[in-house]
Amino acid sequence: IGADSQILTSDSEKPVWTDPAAAGGAWNFISSVSADSSTTLEFTSGIDSTYDMYAFVMSNLSPSVDSAVLLMRTDSGNGSDYDSEAYPGHVSTIKSNSTSYAAIVTQYSIPVSGNIGVGAGDSSTLDGFVYMSHPSSTLHETNFIVQTVHHDGGAGGTPRINFINGGLSTPNTKGPVVAAVEFSADSDKIAIGDIRMYGLSIS
Predict the structure, then answer these.
(1) Cβ(196)–Cβ(20) under 8 Å?
(2) Do 45 and 181 form a contact (C-beta atoms < 8 A)?
(3) How far is CA 117 from the centre of its chain?
(4) What is the pLDDT of residue 6?
């Protein structure tokens, strides 16, 4: 009898239990990191040509100090030299209780919390995701799509909805390939929270 996750198939001689192949579009868990007053949260392995797109799912991220902006940067190597000049993109933030709209452009990092800092503490955490396309391709730009929600700095802050879209410069200062990703805060550290990385099979 096979394991709970296996299916019964047959070869030329007899039935066999096998693991089912992932269908197109399946989310394949790769690894996760957890913050504990961490200066950075890094993914330095598992990003390659295996998948068409990678997703980073952020849960309950909170900085150590109020109003810190949470950032993302990439490296073409093993995480020893993250690029600080290669992220042209559009950042928009919307208040959940207003129709007001604020936008900036980004260049030196990807501000996953938008243009407003995150409040410190369990009640002001950031949740959301980053999609990053074909990071190992030398033919296409690596693009990113970010959507997050958080409360702005201070107790009782206003909920903010953030959308960030852009791509790595071509050619960017470290080359077109992404092999490592780093998350950090622009002030102090990331106190708590988890990030899980998935590979998405598009084809």
Answers:
(1) no
(2) no
(3) 17
(4) 60
Question: Residue 160 phi/psi, 5° resolution?
Answer: -125, 140
Q: Token pair of 42, please?
A: 């890094």
Mean pLDDT per 10-residue segment, the chain (203 residues): 59 64 75 97 94 95 91 90 84 79 80 87 85 84 90 69 81 64 95 96 72
Cα-based distances in Å from 56 to 13, 44, 97, 107, 116: 43, 13, 27, 20, 20
Tell me the sheet residues that pair with 190: 38, 63
**Per-position DSSP letters for 39-92, written without gaps between them:** SEEEE-SS-STT-SEEEEEEEEEEESSTTBPEEEEEESSSSSS--SS---EEEE
Cis preceding-peptide flag for 176 (omega within 30 of 0): no
Task: Assess contact for 160 and 150: CB atoms under 8 A.
Answer: yes
> How far is the C-alpha of 186 from the C-alpha of 198, rounded, in Å?
25
Q: Is 0.85 topped by the overall pTM?
A: no
Backbone CA torsion sign across 52, 58, 63, 64 = negative
Which structure tokens are listed for 101? 């709209």
- Please, are residues 75 and 161 in contact by the beta-carbon 8 Å criterion? no
Q: What is the pLDDT of residue 59?
A: 96
**Buried (b) or exposed (e) across 14-26, using 16+ Cβ within 10 A?**
eeeeeeeeeeeee
